[in-house]
């Protein structure tokens, strides 16, 4: 009878002394960064006492919230970080053996802008790099689109070389990692022009009193544009009432209704915008017909004496003076000097003033040479 009791006790001990067995855990789990994570590790069988141990990527976890009871253990992580992704292992053991369960935990980091693209203004032929940088886990794929079509880029970096007008448009950067909402940013790329003026013509000389107009027309350039006019490098202002300036968005006109000699100058149109400036110069020359300042006068002179004949004229350009007697040119000075005149110096003299504009001024005078008077002396 005693033998049977001992045998039954031995059978009972052998039956209850089991190695532990864990309820299977999922092999993979994902969670969003900042969330709370809880993992229950529970045995389905196994003899007490049981000992639980947690590890991450092969390293035992100590400084972490773990709650352990007789038959289960719970790992808790509040506000989980992306760096806490990894392989988590629950191990349970007793005197008869051990069991483990491993779960691969992926902490999804939401997509965030690291370098958010912005609107870009480029000049023609300018080079530009536009960055679109996004963080997140898994690492996002970044693509660029222009006007709805995918374009070539490298790691979110868009390069524009020697910008032209075909590069302008609506660009969109999209970042996605298959686990989060797609991050996108739409920007506008504008290609701007510094201004360029159509070359101004070379004008013939103007006559005093004529109407002069100069037109400054923009060949290209991004608005708004600002026009200025200069007369021989001096800015034209409202203090010059004889000069009228009218400007629109793309052109500017300078007008002088009745030109005078003093209006002759170089007139320069300067246009500028935020991206540069340009200038063009037009020359105004004003020709004034010759006018007498001092008309020559006829003269009488006695043989052997000296005489000076004088004429002077104004105009623009300044008239050249010539003295002639018949077909012979005597001088190109204002004053014609005749020394010790004789009867052969008598005759018609002609002063000519000309400047290549309009009809020359011509004045004919006469010089009369008288013989010396003989004085009769009588002695009484």
Automatic annotation (TrEMBL):
Signal sequence region: 1-16
Keywords: Cell adhesion, Disulfide bond, Immunoglobulin domain, Membrane, Repeat, Signal, Transmembrane, Transmembrane helix
Membrane topology reported for the UniProt record: Single-pass membrane protein
Family annotation (InterPro entries): Ig-like_dom, Ig-like_dom_sf, Ig-like_fold, Ig_I-set, Ig_sub, Ig_sub2, Neural/epithelial_adhesion
Localization terms from the record: Membrane
Domain Ig-like: 20-101, 117-190, 195-285, 290-368
SMART domains: IG (SM00409), IGc2 (SM00408)
A Pfam family the protein falls into: Ig_3
One GO CC term, this protein: neuron projection
Organism: Dinothrombium tinctorium
A single GO BP: cell adhesion
Name listed for the protein in its UniProt record: Down syndrome cell adhesion molecule-like protein Dscam2
